[in-house]
# Entry
Amino acid sequence: MGTRPTLLLCFCLFLCLASRSCSQSQEQQLAGGGYRVAAVKVDRGGRRLRAEVAAAGAGVSTGDVDRLDVYASWPAAGLLALHTPVSSSLRVRSLMATPRSAPASSLLLLILLAVGALAVSRGDDCCGYDVVSVAGSGSALSARLELAGDAPVLAELGPDVQRLSLTASLETDTRLRVRITDADHPRWEVPQDIIPRPAPEDVYLDAPRQDNSSPPRTRVLSTAGSDLVFTIHASPFRFTVSRRSTGEVLFDTSPSLVFKDRYLELTSALPADRASLYGLGEQTKRAFRLRHNDTFTLWTADIAASNVDLNLYGSHPFYMDVRPRGAAHGVLLLNSNGMDVLYGGSFVTYKVIGGVLDFYFFAGPSPLAVVDQYTQLVGRPAPMPYWSFGFHQCRYGYLNVADLKGVVAGYAKAKIPLEVMWTDIDYMNKFQDFTLNPANFSFAELRPFVDRLHQNGQKYVLILDPGISIDPNYGTFVRGMQQDIFLKRNGTNFLGNVWPGDVYFPDFMNPHAAEFWSQEISIFRRTIPVDGLWIDMNEISNFYNPEPMNALDDPPYRINNSGNHRPINNKTTPASAMHYGSVSEYDAHNLFGLLESRATNHALLRDTGRRPFVLSRSTFVGSGRYTAHWTGDNNASWADLRYSINTILSFGLFGVPMIGADICGFGGDTTEELCGRWIQLGAFYPFARDHSAIGTVRREPYLWASVAASARKSLGLRYRLLPYMYTLMHEAHTTGAPIARPLFFSYPEDVATYGVDRQFLLGRGVLVSPVLEQGATTVDAYFPAGRWFCLYDHSLAVDTRSGERVKLPALPDSPYVHVAGGSILPLQQSAMTTAQARRTPFHLLVALAEDGTAAGNLFLDDGESPEMGGARSEFSLVKFSCATQSDGMIRLRSQVVHNSYAPSRTLVISKVVLMGLQSPEPPRNIAVYVNGAEVQANRAVSTSYRSRGGLGAAHVGGLSLVVGEEFELKLAMSY
# Structure
């Protein structure tokens, strides 16, 4: 069998080449439009084949690639892995089929290779790796891998690493780690102090066998308590991750592992008809669910978010895979180097330019469980101060303090809530951090303005950029030089250029840089007591294009930076720059935003003693521990309005729940209609801020009467929902659960929710359905199974048993906001600031499910203590439950889980609204019982009943139920 498969594959190639030469005229071949086989390599057993395919004639059509590497192998069951070499400047348009412009013979080539691969037998390999020894102990397994064969793979990318070490370990019952690295030389990995995590378990490895016998063909790692099963296949090496409970394969690598010094490649098969993938960012995408045949480049860059499908400000090599019936799992490649991730529907390929292959698999099986397990590893989201859930206003281009005063007055006059006033780089002197423009933002004018904001219960946030201006008269620069904390290149401080001109960049890998940054923030806050900090341009953005200095600046494989394989040095710091500890920028580039966020968070905490608020443009795995994020420089366009939902949902998966987009659009001129629809949507972003660019039309919502009306209504509902949203922040901080969620998080078994990205949930049961099209008169909304009540008038909007798509008339001044049956929402009254809203009585909105039950939570604290729900913090956590008894009596209970927050003993619930009562007819009498005692009619308690949508809603007002004390409220209705 050893030679027959080889001959079969060669015969297939012969037929293909012959068919190509016969199917095209000489003129057609010269004109291009197809491919030719340039070289073929087959292993000695005929089990694996590699063909180098090159463009024929004058080239290929736009959108195609000029060279491909085609692999066929028996273990992958006919999987074809195609690779774009470094010389290609075009992206693979379709990885599992030839471009439409290619002739039939090219398609025949791929088909014959796939069929031939199914017929081959096992044997020695020509590329990839073989397992030479393996050992396991308890929950860990280690293996030694050696390069198979002598023929180099992708030789133009450098020599292959000869020996690899693999460690697989079940770190918890729901988390599997698989780490592959050079067995003989240490390699760069994300440092433990940046993302703390368990060290790989060392398992004693047997020496390679001397009798030429082979290790077992497979070895399995599993434990009784885990649903994850790891299987290593010996020759050629590959591995699979599967579920014990169902046998379903979650990750199935091909044998074509490539491991070089500056190029690592690994491919896993996926079930194209069963896998729905989400994540892999940061990019602006047209859809939340990843589309087949797409490339995700991860290299942080100052590229405007209005550009679709390009690498943007953050690097998040994590995806969630949701399979039918709602079984979800997550996959993280913990690697800070640049990479391309190719998703072809039936496969995912990682092409990484350094580091190690350090995979983490999260078992789920629910989407919420996946983010819980993911953030348990990378860090729980930081608690955000209560005030940050209010509405924020900013603009690049505010003229002076008088301009800021006018904006605040405009909001007040229009009776639109305003919590936080922001200022962009306009406030700086010569665009230098920690300075004030003496003409327009002088201390004498700005400090009293900020003091008045604070007196009104409002806040103030300023921007900082990382570049420190090179100016001997600038105190921050002088102190930075004295402490020697700047990024180096070739033994001296690296020279960059941004808004103030020539700059040096702090090296936040240097512990002294974090201390320097903290001191500068503290000094500046003595001048202007800002409440939070906005850190921008931290990819790092650099207006210079540094010339290459060594091989790091021009790696052999060019990732698809900026969508055109732009050199990785362009518009940023050079890869050859050096950080503290001899760490190259090549390895650490994607970490800068995370490190600056950490330093800024710690600085604010130390200086204020209160919960920090940081907003960072650049992020990495684990950034949510320190910072909020916004989607960056979008445009005032209807497309950007729609795409904002996709990015917000993605960052919820990444463990950054405090996320929003620039409302009304940052770049370009907005319109009244667009701004009105955007404030309706943006009012329900977790982070809600209006922001715009210099030179564009002003877009404060009070400037148009219709937009002001939308702001009052939509933000009014947001402020009523603040207790609910803040409770979601506590859930995010303790479990990683996103605040804004895709529908499948609550309805994972409903496959119709997998593609919904024009709606989203706040928590488990508040559904937001905005208008996203210009001139739209209807909203096409999907409602999963159950009851859905309108949050504005408490009417039953939809009652469906299996999920239903409904066309709703577009509301002029708000999005549709519905609450799912089975939910209890804690509400307060709307106000101009969160401080005012927090002083109002609570209401409970109870939306009964079909079975007459509902549940919800309320978390309370002072909104600014550093800990949120921790052992050293004062807080109250109350659980509410409601049930309908067999005699029709409604019983609402509270359970006080924790109660150390003193105001909870005086705050009261004054009103309860119960929706979804079975009788649409008003009852003759509603008897109200509190803790077993009937409330007499002569008391202040009032009741009313409304029939809406075929069901009834009972309103009970005048109550005085103390939040921090357990109670039971019963309603008995007689007809």
User: Anything to note?
Assistant: The two ends are 85 Å apart (CA to CA). Confidence is low (pLDDT under 50) at residues 1-33, 41-48, 57-65, 73-125. Residues 48 and 404 are 68 Å apart (CA to CA).
